[in-house]
Amino acid sequence: MSDPREQTSITYAGAGVDVEAGDKAVELMKASVRRATRPEVLGGLGGFAGMFDASAIARMARPVLATSTDGVGTKVAIAQALDRHDTIGFDLVGMVVDDIVVCGAEPLFMTDYIACGKVVPERIAAIVSGIARACEQAGVALVGGETAEHPGLLGVDEYDVAGAATGVVEHADVLGPQRVAPGDVVLGLASSGLHSNGYSLVRRVIAHAGWALDRHVDEFGRTLGEELLEPTRVYSADLLALIRADGVDVHALSHVTGGGLGANLARVLPDHLHARVDRATWTPPAIFSTVGRLGSVPQADLERTLNQGVGFVAMVPADSVDAATALLEARGIRTWAMGEVHEAATAPIEDGIEVVSGAKGVDGGSVQVVGSHPTSA
What we know:
Elements: H1 19-35, E1 41-42, E2 51-52, E3 63-71, H2 75-82, H3 88-101, E4 106-116, H4 121-138, E5 141-149, E6 159-170, E7 185-190, H5 199-209, E8 216-217, E9 222-223, H6 224-228, H7 236-244, E10 252-255, H8 260-266, E11 273-278, H9 286-295, H10 299-305, E12 310-316, H11 321-330, E13 335-343, E14 355-357, E15 366-370
Parallel strand pairs: 4-5, 11-15
Antiparallel strand pairs: 1-2, 3-6, 4-6, 7-12, 7-13, 8-9, 10-12, 11-13, 14-15
Helix pairs in contact: 1-4, 3-4, 8-10
Pathway: Purine metabolism; IMP biosynthesis via de novo pathway; 5-amino-1-(5-phospho-D-ribosyl)imidazole from N(2)-formyl-N(1)-(5-phospho-D-ribosyl)glycinamide: step 2/2
EC number: 6.3.3.1
Family: Belongs to the AIR synthase family.
C-alpha cells in the first residue's frame, strides 16, 4: 500500500482556480468602476461590502426602499460565441435598475456577480466595463461585486452574470395601479431591439434555420450576431426625468420583459380597468419579423416572448401626452400613443382576440392587443 505522504500535493490552482488571475481582473476593472459612482459611496473597490451613505433618506417623510435582482439569460451565449463581452453589462443593468424605476424609485446602487469556468482577466474586465458604463448612464453607483471561478461546472469560456440594485422613493410618490384611471393614454417607448428576453427561442430559431452569426442581413444593415448583441436600452435616467418633469403626470410604468407587452402591462393595472392597445400604431424592427418568419413562430407566441419593439410603457392622463412625448423624444427615445385605458365593465373588447389578465401572479387588470402592424415603418 502506497504511503499517502508520497502522493502529489493538490493545490487550489491545480483544482482550476487561479487567484492571481482574479486579482489581475480586479486591477483591470478599477478604472471602469471608479466612473460608476455617486457622492454617497463610501470606501473603495475591494471591501467585503459596498457602503453607501443613506443619510439623505432620513430627510424623507416616508422613504420606501425598492430592490430588484436579475440576470441576462442566454444572451450571454451570443457574447461568448462572438467573443465580445463589453456590452452585456448594459443588458444586466437595464434588466435590474429599470425594474426599480417602475414604481417611481430612483435606483441608488448596484452589485454584480460573475460566475465563470476560468477567470480570463481581460474578459472579466470587459464585462465589468459594460456594467460600469451602464451604471454611469443610469446614475447608479456600482458599489461592489464578485467573480467566482467554477472549474468543472462551467467550461473555460463560459460565464453567467447577475446583479441586484436598491433604490428609494417617497411613499406618496409611488407609481402603480392605484394611480391609473379611465382615459389614461398608453404610451409606448421604443426598445433598442430584443433586449434580454426570449433568447432561448431566438437561438433555437436561428439554429433551425442554419444561420451563422456572421451572416450579413440586409434588413438589419449588419450581421446577425451584431443585431442579436445590440445592448438593452437603459431607461431609468430618462424615466426619472419624465417623472420629475413639470407638466407631466405619470400614473404607472411597465417594463416590457419576459411575458411580453400584454402580460407586463396588465401587472400595473387595477383589476377594474382594461387597456386596449393597437398594433397599427407601430412597426416592430426587422429582427422580430425575421424570427417569426424563420421559425414559423405563431404571433401569439412571439408576443408572449419578445418585446416586439416596445421596451417600456408609460400611462399618463391625456393632457400629459404631448409633454411626455416631447421630453422622451428629445432624450432619444421614440415614443407614441398606442392605446387607452377603459373601465373593464364597458371596455370595447373585440371577439376572438385574447384578453390577457392575471399575469405573473398579479391579480391586476386586463389587456387586449388588437389590429395589425403596418408592413413598413
